[in-house]
């Protein structure tokens, strides 16, 4: 039994390394093209910050995996530190999916009322608020140091889990609403960004929620159960962060002929012009 468990742990460990390295390269390409070669519209800003959060998560995951390979055991900071980057990505994904959904359901009203720097402000708030929300909870629950404050842990943990679940529900609901709207109600042609939003929502549902579930149950699970569940949740979270660049490139590519990656990425984001309900083009180049 222990031999089988050892083989399983090794397979999960090396799969996590392989997926993490591939995800780092994919997100680095997204960061390079969006950061230096593509004019950043409002949704490209979200994707840029989302790729940065995914890159940070995968980088921390690989760094702690190297520490585990060297020391033979998990470092106590592994989960709280990597979950900071995961939670930032969840905030950004919820905002990106919700805005994309609203922009297609109510294009004229939405673009007419949307403040100019909404994307930058939301991304800044995500980076500013998500880390304290995770680290305060981790500190109160004894994940950052030996002492535990049970009452503070309970309060922070309930608030943290409630907020993260709300963000996950918002991201998945936006994808579902957009799917129903495009499939059944919208008279317009299916937008390019539809695949990116729907694919990101499905990835979160299948591969992202186990990591969120691990964060939710960590204070209450025995250590031996956690040691079995956490590596698998980490692998799925790596898949969640690594597959997003593939979704962008698959959605944006056209059959026949090779194109520069920046052109494929720009097309998958639907940047350029967005048609309103009356057929009037609305500017998309403003942040």
Concise structural overview:
The protein contains 9 helices and 2 strands, in the order αααααααααββ. With 287 residues, it is mainly α. Helix 1 (2-36) runs parallel beside helix 8 (223-252), helix 2 (42-71) runs antiparallel to helix 3 and helix 3 packs across helix 4 (107-113).
Shape: globular
Spans with pLDDT under 50 lasting ≥5 residues? 272-287
Using only CA atoms, what is the Rg?
20 Å
Main sheet attributes: strand count, strand direction, barrel closure: 2 strands, antiparallel
Order of helices and strands: HHHHHHHHHEE
CATH topology: Rhopdopsin 7-helix transmembrane proteins
Report how far the terminal alpha carbons are from each other. 56 Å
CATH class: Mainly Alpha
GO molecular function: G protein-coupled receptor activity
Transmembrane segments: 12-34, 46-71, 77-97, 118-138, 158-181, 193-218, 224-243
Subcellular location: Cell membrane
Membrane topology: Multi-pass membrane protein
Give a written overview of the molecule.
This protein is an all-alpha fold and 287 residues long. It has a single domain (10-271), classed as Rhopdopsin 7-helix transmembrane proteins, CATH 1.20.1070. Helix content is 78%, strand content 2%. It contains 9 helices and 2 strands, in the order αααααααααββ. The chain has helices at 2-36, 42-71, 78-105, 107-113, 118-140, 150-185, 193-217, 223-252, 261-269; strands spanning 273-275, 281-283. Strands 1-2 form a two-stranded antiparallel sheet. A hairpin with a 5-residue loop joins strand 1 (273-275) and strand 2 (281-283). Helix 2 (42-71) runs parallel beside helix 5 (118-140), helix 3 crosses helix 4 and helix 5 (118-140) runs antiparallel to helix 6.
């Amino acid at each position: 039994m222990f031999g089988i468990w050892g083989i399983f742990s090794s397979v999960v460990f090396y799969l996590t390394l392989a997926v993490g390295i591939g995800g780092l390269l994919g997100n680095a390409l997204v960061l390079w093209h969006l950061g230096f070669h593509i004019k950043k519209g409002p949704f490209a800003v979200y994707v840029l910050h989302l790729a940065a959060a995914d890159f940070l998560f995968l980088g921390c995951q690989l760094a702690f995996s190297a520490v585990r390979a060297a020391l033979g055991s998990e470092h106590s900071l592994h989960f709280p530190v990597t979950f900071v980057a995961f939670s930032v990505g969840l905030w950004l994904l919820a905002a990106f999916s919700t805005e994309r959904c609203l922009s297609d359901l109510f294009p004229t009203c939405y673009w007419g009322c949307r403040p100019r720097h909404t994307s930058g402000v939301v991304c800044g708030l995500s980076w500013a608020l998500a880390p304290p929300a995770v680290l305060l909870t981790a500190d109160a629950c004894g994940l950052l140091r030996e002492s535990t404050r049970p009452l503070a842990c309970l309060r922070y943990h309930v608030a943290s889990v409630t907020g993260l679940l709300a963000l996950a529900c918002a991201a998945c609901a936006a994808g579902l609403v957009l799917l129903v709207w495009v499939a059944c109600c919208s008279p317009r042609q299916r937008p390019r960004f539809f695949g990116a939003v729907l694919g990101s929502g499905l990835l979160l549902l299948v591969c992202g929620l186990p990591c969120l579930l691990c964060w939710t149950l960590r204070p209450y699970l025995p250590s031996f159960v956690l040691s079995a569940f956490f590596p698998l949740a980490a692998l799925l979270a790596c898949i969640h962060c690594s597959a997003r660049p593939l979704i962008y490139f698959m959605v944006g590519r056209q059959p026949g002929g090779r194109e520069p990656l920046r052109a494929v990425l720009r097309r998958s984001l639907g940047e350029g012009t967005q048609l309103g309900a009356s057929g009037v083009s609305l500017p998309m180049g403003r942040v």
